[in-house]
Description:
By secondary structure, chain A is mainly alpha-helical. Chain A contains eleven helices and no strands. Chain A has helices spanning 18-21, 32-52, 59-66, 72-76, 80-103, 109-126, 128-139, 145-148, 150-169, 179-198, 206-224. The longest helix of chain A has 24 residues, at 80-103. Chain A is elongated, with a radius of gyration of 19 Å. Chains C and D meet through α7, α9, α10 and α11 of C and α7, α9, α10 and α11 of D. The first copy, chain A, binds a DNA duplex through α2 and α4.
Amino acid sequence: MSEAKPSGYRRPEAESRSQDAGPEAPRRTLSKAAIDKRRIILDAAVRVFARQGFRTCRVSDIADEAGVAYGLVYHYFTSKDEILDTLFLERWNILIATIAEQDSRALPARDKLYAIAAFIVDSYAHDPDLMQVIIVEVTRAANTFGRTHLGKIREAYAQIAEIVRKGQASGEFRSDITAEFAALTFYGAIEQVLTGWIFSLVPAGDDEREQAKWLIVETVCGGLEPRASD
Amino acid sequence: MSEAKPSGYRRPEAESRSQDAGPEAPRRTLSKAAIDKRRIILDAAVRVFARQGFRTCRVSDIADEAGVAYGLVYHYFTSKDEILDTLFLERWNILIATIAEQDSRALPARDKLYAIAAFIVDSYAHDPDLMQVIIVEVTRAANTFGRTHLGKIREAYAQIAEIVRKGQASGEFRSDITAEFAALTFYGAIEQVLTGWIFSLVPAGDDEREQAKWLIVETVCGGLEPRASD
Amino acid sequence: MSEAKPSGYRRPEAESRSQDAGPEAPRRTLSKAAIDKRRIILDAAVRVFARQGFRTCRVSDIADEAGVAYGLVYHYFTSKDEILDTLFLERWNILIATIAEQDSRALPARDKLYAIAAFIVDSYAHDPDLMQVIIVEVTRAANTFGRTHLGKIREAYAQIAEIVRKGQASGEFRSDITAEFAALTFYGAIEQVLTGWIFSLVPAGDDEREQAKWLIVETVCGGLEPRASD
Amino acid sequence: MSEAKPSGYRRPEAESRSQDAGPEAPRRTLSKAAIDKRRIILDAAVRVFARQGFRTCRVSDIADEAGVAYGLVYHYFTSKDEILDTLFLERWNILIATIAEQDSRALPARDKLYAIAAFIVDSYAHDPDLMQVIIVEVTRAANTFGRTHLGKIREAYAQIAEIVRKGQASGEFRSDITAEFAALTFYGAIEQVLTGWIFSLVPAGDDEREQAKWLIVETVCGGLEPRASD
DNA sequence: TATGAATGAGGCTTCATTCAT
DNA sequence: TATGAATGAAGCCTCATTCAT
Lengths: 230, 230, 230, 230
């Protein structure tokens, strides 16, 4: 059985924004202090979104939580939507990078999937509010932000499918289950478990989290792996 | 390999309302014509919710779609919310009943799970708008209606878990994966696949649907079943 | 001191309606049963208006209280307003008739005023709901029904003023206070006392009511009567 | 007879708000400009309420009259109701303070009552719209705002009763008419007179107003004062 | 007479966003 | 940068009244 692996959790830094706007030209040059203020607002938004929900909360709630004036939020962000977009993309780009990194490694496919599951679970452990916001307000909010970010979300699926495909090519995984379908199931299982934690459907503690990593991979890969008896 | 089973899809008829209030006592006595109008409004709401989204659409859109006056919607429903609640509960209660029915059968656990997957997939085939609304606006809308109906949703999980538990007791399923976790993964996989269809992430045709039933069960049960090598 | 006089309280009968439409031509001929139903609705309206307020209650509340179907109210009345109008006019016409009757008597002015005060106070004792509705929803609702029925209300003032005028002519009352002003004060005092009872500002029992008749007349007439020292 | 006394009419200035919250602590710190805008909206509301009635007018009418945007009304007030509440309390608190001030003076009870009547009558002369709104929409609107502010209204009655009580104790007033009843009659007479002016039941000019002060006190006190002949 | 389904105008309130300072 | 006053579009819901049966 696979032993616990370091999940390589990295905090989304302010600089990670540049991933969106491209490496060459940030629209505006922000001073160090400005970057901090922006971060303060983003962090406040995470807490407010998690507590009250994106649609329910008011922009003034975010400003209050951040301890800044009402209009300042609009100094740093174009709209309320952009705040959530930013939070999502910051984190999701890191996830995609993590998956890509795993994909490029010379490891058994099962270990790659474990690393991905571990990364997501550890992300939740580190900042439950942020993961809750991303899942509840974006990933599972299929009718609003989920639709907007469908492309980005699909990227993650595709990259997971790529890992599965390589596993199939190497004979680690059976091929009668399509890689895309397997990716869907794998990510779906992870998200479902996190949703369970978020809404207290299932207990969430350190032990449960460690076990969940193994359970997810074992459940899905167990089914994906060819068996001796076949 | 499991052959296709009849999924026993039942359309929610007007009479099915009596499931909530008991067989003899609807809250209000409505004439036959009134029940029809109510149904017409509900069916119109499904189309509008699917097309425009619950939050985005206006009550007047529903009235227009149903071809009735604005106020009539409020003659039959207390609020816009109640319409969605009604649509969800109508269908979800049938789902729960179906799962319970499967649970009580003397069949292999895998076949029960197949029947459930088939029922849901066939439901989608029969009325994609309705299933889209239920998944997108309720089940996956964790921050709004999903929260409201958490109890009902949990019922379905619990009943699936019960089927798994019996499978574990009979030795069909391994026991080192908890029944609750397995249920989460199983239902999560189904929902993820339907979401994939709804948002055209994966192709959705008759063949894909039939295959999906098998894939879901095979993926999950493959992992749940004890293997010869253990 | 004036001893208690019989107040001659008369219940508003269904027939009294003809006072409004003129003696010759009721718009529709109503059967005995129809008259009863109309009365039932009116009586129900009194209770509902008293309990919930005219603006706040719905027409359906009246129908429910009367135990009749929704639309039947509109069979007997043109509008919700007409119900209140009817209730007010039924009673107010009797009041005016009573004042006129007193005016025509050969009695001391003070006794006439006492009789009027007694009539109103006894009316309240007999049917507090009705008097509450008339005062709260019409007489004191200056911005709505009070405005509509200003003419009728003014009639009562004028007739009271006439009594005062006769009292002044006979030397019972001093003349440096105008009759119109005295009438205003006299009726104002009565209404204020009833309002006090309605809203529990002052205790309302059999004794209080009897005493109030005397107090009102004594307070006002004491001031109206010429004094030995003048 | 009593000569006209200065009524000490004071306009509710923006600063007078501090009477509620204490001299130093307004609930929110508002800039000078903001206070002005708030005042502008309040003054506009008085005109609109007087012209159209509270229930009949729309919030947009107030905004239009004030020359501000619709939403700004809700920047300063929670609801349409709160605007009327504010107008009433602003003025009524001044009335109560005035009565209390009179109560504490070393004057004949009759002079105190005269000062109160004069204050109210002068208030009407100074700002008829405001007094109309307070009487028509609050004090006499027993079924809506009158009910809400019953406590405040009762305070005024109680304080007037206190003045009467002192008059009884000093022998100025007879004691067989209760102080509470006398207060009811006194205030009722004033309100009735103002209502007469508001609805043009009786002529309202400078002379009429001056005379009214005397008439009210004379009518009521004449009855309250013990007479030589008793 | 009697029923209750059907109609639809009307208004308060919310709150994201803009803008003057 | 920072503030918070100012803007105004948008929509749910109520409920008196009408009408088909």
